[in-house]
Write a structure and sequence with these properties.
By secondary structure, the chain is of the alpha+beta class. Helix content is about 30%, strand content about 25%. The chain contains 2 helices and 4 strands; from the N terminus they run H-H-E-E-E-E. The protein has helices spanning about 1-20, 55-70, and strands spanning about 70-80, 85-90, 95-100, 105-109. It has a 4-stranded antiparallel beta sheet, covered by helices on one side. The radius of gyration is 26 Å and the shape is rod-shaped.
Length: about 110
């Protein structure tokens, strides 16, 4: 009988603890709302520009090469399987699609 009572107390504590844990509100760091997720490109509560969360040295080098050719405002850089970088950039206040090939040549599209 004593074992049965002990078992019942342990079971009710475990069930009660699990139910309580499911009703707790998740905590968020100060300054973040519940709709923002870690790893996003920018803090939604600020006006900071969006930056790639997985920017690489190769992407930074490609961006620098494009900037050296007179483009600015470079965004949406992606690399294809051949190693070419494509994205959007501004030149003479006009947004153009650009491609940087593996030889360093830039084509506007």
């Amino acid at each position: 009988m004593k074992k049965l009572v002990t078992l019942a107390v342990i079971a009710s504590t475990a069930i009660g603890g699990a139910a309580w844990a499911q009703t707790m509100q998740p905590s968020t760091p100060a300054g973040r709302d519940m709709n923002s997720m870690p790893g996003q490109t920018s803090n939604p509560n600020t006006n900071l520009p969006a930056t790639s969360s997985n920017a690489t040295a190769a992407e930074a080098a490609a961006k620098a090469q494009i900037e050296a050719k007179g483009y600015n405002g470079i965004k949406s850089l992606t690399r294809d399987t051949a190693g070419n970088w494509t994205g959007k950039a501004m030149r003479d206040n006009v947004e153009v699609a650009v491609t940087l090939d593996t030889n360093g040549n830039i084509r506007e599209q």
